Amino acid sequence: MEQVTSNIQIDLNSFINEFKDSLLNSLNASNPPVYSEDDMSFERQSIMEQLKRKPFSEQANVVQAVTKLLLDQNEPAAIINAEMGTGKTMMAIAVAAVLHYEAQYRRNLIISPPHLVYKWRREILETIPGARVWVLNGSDTLVKLLKLRQELKLGITSNVPEFYVLGRVRMRMGYHWKHALKSKPIYQKQNIHERGEVKTKYIKKDCAACPDCYNFCRDDEGELILFSDFVLKEHRTTCVNCGSALWTLIRPLNNSNSSFRDRVKKSMCQIPTIGPVKAESLINKFGDDFLSDLLADNASDFVNLMNENGEFIFTDRQAIRMEKALAKLEFGFGEGAYQATEFIKRYLPQGFFDLLIVDEGHEYKNQGSAQGQAMGVLASQVKKILLLTGTLMGGYADDLFFLLFRVLTSKMIEDGYKPNSRGSLGTAAMEFMRDHGIIKDLYTERHGNSHKTAKGNQISHRTQKAPGFGPKGILRYVLPYTVFLKLKDIGDNILPNYTEEYIDIKMSYEQRSYYDDLSNKLKSELRSALVKRDTTLLGVVLNTLLAWPDCCFRAETVTHPRTRDKLAFVPSVFSGDEGDSFIECSPKEQSLVEHCLAEKTDCRKVLVYATYTGTRDITGRLKLILEQAGLKTAILKSNVSPEKREDWILDKVDKDYDIVITNPELVKTGLDLLDFPTIIFLQTGFNVYTLQQAAKRSFRIGQKNDVKVIYLGYENSAQTSCLKLMAKKIAVSQSTSGDMPESGLDILNSDDESIEVALAKQLIAV
Does residue 384 contact residue 70 with C-beta atoms inside 8 Å? Predict the structure, then answer.
């Protein structure tokens, strides 16, 4: 009898769904989880029940898991890798509350994006009864830290949880200083020959002297230093005689000619309902010293100012607007600043802060970034660390290395990833990449010139990283310290439906003709350059082919970035630009208008993302096109400061705008855009973090409407190829977020390069 064998292929997700119970039992037996719902602590649950805002059951499980890891397992750090909109801020605050009431963890230091510091403050006060919150994000951060140090010296303690919210920009900002010296004259005898006679004169020289002991400053050889020479020094020094600092802190503002009165007046003019005339009147009535003290230390008393008759200066309407604004404003009139990270390291004891909460933790993954290094310093000074992120990994193993080294230093050193003799982590990062990521060894062989006796070939070797993070690394560094939470896990009754849709748009005949011609010319130039190992044209070609279909209302001249030779020219296709009475729409613009009109019919506001907001700015044209269709449209630009963007958007909602156009980079973190249930991407860019964050801006707890995300792209263009590559990179990043891509482990071992390089390869292969 002939034996028949069959080859049945099954994808990984189907395999897991079929055998998940057996697989889970085996996995739990070999690697038991730190926490399961059966391990729930009723004491910790009761603490959460006493909060003003109570976590949902799935959020409470995350808090239980984190506190068990930090307290019961005594691990140094925990990671909450929760999808955007699941309430990471709320869960972190609940963790701090549990640690306070159970383990007496009193002081919590929070590193936050600058535009979210006041959101943190608001949510803490709305969640924990009696909590004290200090915002360390203004020019008086140093003053607040000095007060904190003084309280420590005096032994002043509190029995309520304390939170110190530090903006990440302020965290890494250095300080301005100048030399603090006295000019001390000396008179040196000098013989001068005049008309055959020798005359003695005394020449005055101004030398540098210590402002405290008035002793001369001398160089390494003991010679006096001239005052004019000393002030040119770039380093801070101290007096060798008395030890006093020969420098002092300054604020850049002090370099201007503005007086203290002008600074107080300018500060008051930032408050709603107060203009220059009113500010001048208040200064004349109360004095600049009194008003500056109120603004810096007790803004609520400023709102309740009374005149000599005991009547309030401001009306109730003014007071309401002022209180809302003052919650997000800080005023500083003191002298100087100081890097907050440096102060905490030098002048506060180790472990002074019990818990460090790092919001948007993936922002600190880069090796040489100032904010990443500053975060590492703070992490070394606290007892426990809680990292919050929605996108832990961006596709490459070294995305995690430096982040893990900063929060799990002892674990990484234990595994052999140590700084080298020069203190650099570059070698360790490469070893980590080889152990847990994907490194490609690329060999290039070229036929060399003939030698006297033989022909020689030249072989060059280089390494290149590829996306992917191995299962061993996930099991070793991610799973033991990370709690995952997806929006779908919270429950169907809490969140509405979420859908994503990609729409292929056909170019017009003329547009397609010009695009194909432009594409062929640029691809040919790129191939020729790459053969010579010249990558100069890579960025130019990619950016042009991605942008031109959306910017073809302008003529396009493509020049070589180095030689300035003209590579291609394309005339404008669609007429009309800003300032014209009528604008001819491109197919994508027409599709955008149709979608926005349909959403308005359903009473849904739309958030439109456009990445071309700089040199190729298209937002002004889009605004005119949408307004031409009867849609009330606003543009959020980068000149709106981060901390004011939430108010800016709420103002447009209150004024019943239908559409808000913005670059996704401006709103990718922290902002809850619940009023915009429909999001349309005209372009996406290359950044996986930005795309994932921006797409979920309106899909979060509190959203009542179904959320719809639409991606628009021209078919058979670089835009479509880019979106496909972005989807692939997102699949890799989700492998460390609790999701397994449809293509299974193949995606983890993908040999793709960065999106730009992969896109270039696709282009020149056609």
Answer: yes
Task: Tell me the residue type at 258.
Answer: S
Residue in the block written with tokens 């070394």: 380
Q: What is the 3-state secondary structure (H, E, C) of 465-478?
A: EECECCHHHHHHHH
Measured CA to CA, the distance from residue 173 to residue 351 in angstroms comes to 23
Check: CB of residue 330 under 8 Å from CB of residue 139: yes
Contact 78, 134 (CB under 8 A): no
Compute how many other C-beta atoms are within 10 angstroms of the C-beta atom of residue 673.
Answer: 23
- The type of residue at 107 is R
Q: Which helix (H) or strand (E) holds 681?
A: strand 678-681
19-139+159-173+350-433 and 496-507+582-754 agree in CATH topology = yes
Q: What are the extents of the domains in the chain?
A: 19-139+159-173+350-433, 181-245, 257-326, 496-507+582-754, 509-570
The residue that leads in pLDDT, 55 or 748, is 55
d(CA 255, CA 274): 26
Per the CB < 8 A criterion, the answer to whether 267 and 325 are in contact is no
What are the φ and ψ backbone dihedral angles of 28, each rounded to 5 degrees? -65, -30
List all residues 6 or more positions away from 292 whose beta carbon is below 8 Å from its beta carbon.
260, 264, 267, 331, 333
Q: State the number of CA atoms in the 13 A half-sphere of 655 facing the CB.
A: 13
Q: Which CATH superfamily is domain 19-139+159-173+350-433 in?
A: Tandem AAA-ATPase domain (3.40.50.10810)
Residue with tokens 């628009």: 712
496-507+582-754 maps to CATH 3.40.50.300: yes
| Lowest-confidence pick of 190-194, 311-315, 677-681, 697-701 | 190-194
Residue 320 has pLDDT above 80, yes or no: no
Per-residue pLDDT at 737 exceeds 60:
no
Cβ atoms of 32 and 25 within 8 Å: the answer is no
In the block, residue with structure tokens 């009535």: 285
Yes or no: say if 672 and 645 are a contact pair by the CB < 8 Å rule. no
Q: Listing from the earlier edge strand, what are the strands of the sheet with 707-714? A: 498-505, 707-714, 678-681, 606-609, 659-662, 633-636
Residue type, 569: F
Polymer length of the chain: 766
- Backbone angles phi and psi of 631, in degrees to 5: -105, 130
Say which DSSP state 717 is in.
Answer: S
Supply 248's token pair.
Answer: 């002092």
- Residue 388: predicted pLDDT: 92
pLDDT band of residue 108 (cuts 50, 70, 90) is: very high
| pTM tops 0.85 | no
Put residue 229 in one of left, alpha, beta given phi > 0 → left and psi -120 to 50 → alpha.
alpha
Please list the alpha-helical segments (H only) found in 416-533.
426-436, 471-473, 487-490, 509-531
Q: What is the mean pLDDT of residues 632-648?
A: 85
